[in-house]
Amino acid sequence: MSTATALTEKPTRDYKAYQHPLWRRLLINREAAIIGLLILVVIVAMLTVPNFDSPLTMTFLIREIAPILLIALPMTLIIITEEIDLSVASILGLSSVVTGLGVQAGWSLPVAGLVAILVGVIAGVINGSLITFVGLPSLAVTIGTLALFRGIAVGLLGTTAISEFPEYWTDLARANIPGTPVPLIIVPFIVLAIVFAVLLHFTPFGRSLYTIGLNKEVAAFSGIDVRMTKFWLFVMSGTVSGFAGVYFTLLYNNARGDNAIGMELLIIASVLLGGVSIFGGRGALHGVIAGVFLIGTMSSALRLAGVTSDIINVITGTVLILSVVSASFLAWIRTNRIAAIGRKKGQAGSTGAPA
User: Fold this and answer.
1) In angstroms, rounded to a whole number, what is the distance separating the alpha carbons of residues 237 and 90?
2) Count of domains observed in the chain
3) What span, in angstroms and rounded, lies between the C-alpha atoms of 206 and 262?
4) Is residue 85 included in any domain, yes or no?
5) Average pLDDT of the chain?
């Protein structure tokens, strides 16, 4: 073999050769950091906050964050595509009112619940149609539908509340898995979490969401139907929000037009804290679930410690801001490091030295 041939031949390397070791990819990332922080917060709370380690605390914690856990699943997929849905809490409130009115009209609870979920589907179709087919920005659309759906809910029920629901169903919403302090609602959540995790991380549809979030023009030229993909994401969001509204109503035995007001901020905060980029193209469901539990654990521990709700909101907002700023700062460091390495290689190449 001649010297020229040896110099021009490229060594064969596979895809894995360009990656970090598996342990590093699994342990040194944002999602692993959130899980580690969650474990740390739980340990500190158990050691310092009275009664935090009691089974009853875990029961109430999971019941409280269950609607957030449910809605955070489709919200993760939406934000990965660089969109947002601010109307989820108002859809929850509207489905709660529909459930209450249906039971009040003499419907059975399953029928009223199915109608309420259907209302959530319709709300998702409205959001998805305005965003994908009309071409309006999701932020503006969902701010408008937030007010619209909340206004309809309050208009249907006024300032009154419906609190007469079949005892069987309210007891079921508050029931635990037999022999454990874990609420039964965790079962449908686990089922939905598996479905969304498989959809996001192990299917071409999920990979297309990341592509859309990184560059929707590239996604379109790659053959991805960007409009229909986003449309179905908003339908999923409305459907799950409707189901969460039925559960919320039965859990608190209360249907009101202002149920879950402000919850959309907690949902979005949890998703962003869990490692999903607000600019799209990045995120994982296990990080989001850890983010929801982190915010819920912090709130529960602070309440048990006697901290007021205003201070809890300040702390939650501070944690969210720090998480977003830290992610942007680390990305800036990584970009500058890669640029510096590229400049060094270019300088080495220009002097004839091996890069």
Assistant:
1) 12
2) 1
3) 29
4) yes
5) 86
Cβ distance 285 to 193 under 8 Å?
yes
Residue 275's pLDDT is 87
Residue 315 lies in a domain: no
In a domain, 274, yes or no: no
Contact present, 106 and 165 (Cβ < 8 Å):
no
Q: Give 324's contacts (C-beta < 8 A, 6+ positions apart).
A: 272, 278
CA distance 342 to 223: 33
pTM score: 0.86
d(CA 42, CA 219): 41
Which residue type is seen at 221?
F
Q: What are phi and psi of 325, to 5 degrees?
A: -65, -40
What are the Cα distances from residue 42, in Å, to 66, 289, 296, 298?
A: 18, 15, 11, 8
In terms of residue numbers, what domain contains 105?
55-261
Q: What are the two backbone dihedrals, phi and then psi, of residue 315, each rounded to the nearest 5 degrees?
A: -65, -45
The confidence band for 207, taking pLDDT boundaries of 50, 70 and 90, is: very high
